[in-house]
Each structure stands twice: as C-alpha cells, then as structure tokens.
Amino acid sequence: MVNWKIEIAYIGKEFFGFQKQPQKRTVQRVLESLLSSLFDQEVKVIGAGRTDAGVHALGQVVNFKTNKEWEEVKLKEVLKKLLPDDILLKKVERVDDNFHARFSAKRRWYMYIIYNNKEKNLFLKDFSWWIEKPLDKEFLIQSAELLKGEHNFVNFAILEKNEDTNIYIENSFWVFNEDFLFFFICAPYFLRKMVRFLVSGMVEVSLRNRNLEDWKEYLNGEKGKRFSIPSPPQGLYLYKIDY
C-alpha cells in the first residue's frame, strides 16, 4: 500500500467546495473519480482543509492510498495532463503510511483579497471582494492585531455540534499594495466560514459601522450573536498548509 501526498491549487468558481456532495462538482469528487480510474481501484481522497463553494486554493494538500505502484515523476506527468483546467498539480510525493493530510497538519494559512477602488474591475470579480468605499487601513491593522492569541470565535462561524470554538490565532496581518488589500491569518484549524466572518467584521470596523470595543467583546464570545455577515467567497484562498 502506497500513501501519496499531492499539493494542488484550484479556482473555486466552478466548484461547490472541496468536500464531496451528491450530484455536485467538487474538488474531492473530481480527484477521486480521476484517481480511481487511473489506479483501477476505488480511491478515497483526504483533504487538509475544506473550502466552500467559490473559495480558491493556492496550496491545498491531499493524501490517498493505493495498491498500485507508480514512479513519482510519471504520476505527476499523467495527472498534469488529465486534471481539468481549474485544478493545477504542484507536487507529488510518496509519504509515510502514517501521514494524514488533515490530522498531520500543524497549521493552516488563509489569504483574503479585497479590491478597494470606487471603480469596479470586471476582471477581478471572481477573485476578490470589490469594496467601493475607502477603507481605513489603520483600523484594519488594529483589528487584525487583536485577533492574535486565543479567542472564542462562537460569534464568527457556522457551527457544528459540540465544536470547540476556542482557537489560538498564531498570526494575523494585512498587506497593502495600492488598491489591493491582502489579509493573512494562520491557526491550527478554523471553523466553517470563520475567516470570511472575520474579514467582513474588520471591514465593518474599518468603515466605522462598528468600533474596536465591540470587536474585542465579540472576540471573547460574550455577545451570543454574529458580528456581521460573511464576506464573499471569491476573495478567500486556502494559502498553504504547514506540516
């Protein structure tokens, strides 16, 4: 039995997320269908992180186990030819039998892109969140800094049963390049839609619709209701996975 690890990037526009769903085109479904045909056996793919419909990935990691042997270089060549245009194969390697794309991960990085300009850019609409009103960058910086450390994110996620909402944020910061605003965040794991809720919350603070004191209270899980609605999915990218 061979345990394979592959790293991929994908454009999320035409996918209903990563995780397999009945009658839906998802990244996991496409990979499993292709790999099962290629190895002539049922192949189950494990992803490092789930992404919602419309969310992109620059460094998604998956693993799968097969009985059939392949040379790494040959498998990479074949997969590159057979994968659809919206999935890019970056790496292929054999790994230890104990490697698990999800449970072996130490931390996950996400990136969010905002295009902040009064004029809409047609060519960016599927890859960023267009915000017409000027954003106060200092408030974005301050709100991102307050995310660092452990907080109760019950007000910033779609929750599943008995889910632990206390998460330690290892890093959180903004990078600005003219009209492009890039948010980076790193933690061992994230709750469903958590990053999108956080980004929209920081935008609310930046637009002065909410204040930093509210932000602090909500980060302590004290309010019992959501701070804001989630930001659009097309601005979010699974940036990389650290092992």
Outline the structure in words.
- The protein contains five helices and eleven strands; from the N terminus they run βαββαβββαββββααβ.
- Helix content is 23%, strand content 30%.
- Helix 3 crosses helix 4 (194-206).
- The protein has helices at 27-39, 72-82, 137-147, 194-206, 212-219; strands at 2-10, 46-47, 56-66, 87-95, 107-116, 129-131, 149-152, 166-169, 171-177, 180-187, 236-242.
- The chain folds into two domains: 2-95, Alpha-Beta Plaits, CATH 3.30.70.580; 107-242, Alpha-Beta Plaits (2-Layer Sandwich).
- The protein is an alpha+beta fold and 243 residues long.
- Strands 1, 2, 3, 4, 5, 6, 9, 10 and 11 form a nine-stranded mixed sheet that branches.
- The mean pLDDT is 95.
- It is globular, with a radius of gyration of 19 Å.
- The longest helix has 13 residues, at 27-39.
**Rounded radius of gyration (Å):** 19 Å
Specify the structural class: alpha+beta
Distance between the termini: 22 Å
What CATH calls the topology of the largest domain is Alpha-Beta Plaits
Largest beta-sheet details: 9 strands, mixed
The CATH class label of the largest domain is Alpha Beta
Number of helices: 5
Number of strands: 11
- Spans of at least 5 consecutive residues whose pLDDT stays below 50 are none
Average pLDDT number: 95
Q: Could you tell me the strand content as a percent range? A: 25-35%
Shape: globular
Task: Compute the number of structural domains.
Answer: 2
User: SSE order in H/E notation?
Assistant: EHEEHEEEHEEEEHHE
The CATH homologous superfamily of the largest domain corresponds to Pseudouridine synthase I, catalytic domain, C-terminal subdomain
